[in-house]
């Protein structure tokens, strides 16, 4: 049996999967998260994509405004995480986004 927190997370993931368009996801995320939280997530995703393209940390810092420590953390998860960043990057690349 899932623990309550795991169950809540699974329910959230299912809610995200139920969205059918980017617009629906945008509306759902805006209801769920503050603009600041969405901006932070967006910048982290931008960093992951830039790292995947082998863009230097200094350029990433300049473009995103994130610290080298945050960039290093994202780099760590990109290289040694559970593969979520890599999977999403690959799927978007395959769809030519």
- How would you state the average pLDDT, rounded? 94
Q: What is the CATH domain class of the largest domain?
A: Mainly Alpha
* Distance linking N and C termini: 38 Å
CATH superfamily of the largest domain: TrpR-like
Largest sheet: none
Shape: globular
- At CATH level 2, the architecture of the largest domain is Orthogonal Bundle
Count of structural domains: 2
* Series of secondary-structure elements, N-terminal to C-terminal: HHHHHH
Stretches where pLDDT falls below 50 for ≥5 residues? Answer: none
How many helical elements? 6
Question: What is the radius of gyration computed over CA atoms, rounded to a whole number of angstroms?
Answer: 15 Å
Could you explain the architecture of this structure?
The chain has 2 domains: 32 residues; 64 residues, TrpR-like (Trp Operon Repressor, Chain A, Orthogonal Bundle). It has 6 helices and no strands. The N and C termini lie far apart (38 Å). 78% of the residues lie in helices and 0% in strands. The radius of gyration is 15 Å and the shape is globular. With 97 residues, it is mostly helical. The model has no long low-confidence stretch (mean pLDDT 94).
